[in-house]
């Protein structure tokens, strides 16, 4: 749904109300992905050191989707934009940290494309944030 709204927004001028709808859709999707990730926590609310093989790929992909959704937010000010991009970077790094820390487990999970994109974005986002900071001053 977010992608559809974005494609419509790219074709015509978008009113502030429509950006609010897009932001709400992004927020709702992020909440659902975070709810899934919270299900992986143990009864003490601690994230396990190693996930089961069935949940590794969904966890990594959900972290990448969360990061992408934070990048799609259209905030009203620069500070908020930087905060969302920082959250996106954090989630890309969570996916990469798990993958890098558990390479033997992740080897056969068909994650190459997702991990390559996450690496590029984790490298690119700090530069983008710096550029936004410079433009704001």
Can you describe this structure?
With 137 residues, the protein is mainly alpha-helical. The chain has helices at residues 2-11, 16-39, 53-72, 78-101, 103-106, 112-136. Helix 3 (53-72) packs antiparallel against helix 4 (78-101). The longest helix has 25 residues, at 112-136. The N and C termini lie far apart (35 Å).
Short description:
With 137 residues, this protein is mostly helical.
Shape: globular
Give the N-terminus to C-terminus distance in angstroms: 35 Å
Q: Could you estimate the helical fraction of the residues in percent?
A: over 70%
Low-confidence stretches: none
Radius of gyration: 16 Å
Q: What's the pLDDT, averaged over the residues?
A: 89
Number of contiguous helices: 6
Give a quick account of the main beta sheet: strands, pairing sense, barrel closure: none
How much of the polypeptide forms β-strand, as a percent range?
under 5%
The total count of strands amounts to: 0
* Order of H and E elements: HHHHHH
The helix-and-strand class reads: mainly alpha
Secondary structure layout plus pairing:
Layout: H1 2-11, H2 16-39, H3 53-72, H4 78-101, H5 103-106, H6 112-136
Helix pairs in contact: 1-2, 2-3, 3-4, 4-6
Overview features:
single chain; 137 residues; mainly alpha; 6 helices; 0% strand
């Amino acid at each position: 749904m977010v992608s559809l709204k974005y494609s419509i927004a790219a074709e015509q001028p978008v009113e502030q109300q429509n950006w609010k709808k897009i932001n709400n859709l992004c927020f709702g999707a992020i909440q659902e992905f975070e709810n899934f990730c919270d299900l992986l926590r143990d009864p003490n609310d601690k994230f396990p050191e190693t996930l089961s093989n069935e949940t590794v790929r969904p966890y990594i992909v959900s972290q990448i989707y969360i990061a992408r959704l934070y990048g799609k937010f259209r905030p009203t000010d620069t500070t908020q934009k930087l905060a969302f991009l920082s959250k996106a970077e954090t989630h890309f790094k969570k996916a990469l940290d798990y993958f890098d820390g558990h390479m033997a487990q992740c080897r056969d999970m068909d994650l190459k494309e997702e991990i390559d994109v996450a690496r590029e974005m984790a490298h690119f986002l700090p530069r983008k944030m710096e550029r936004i900071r410079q433009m704001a001053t």
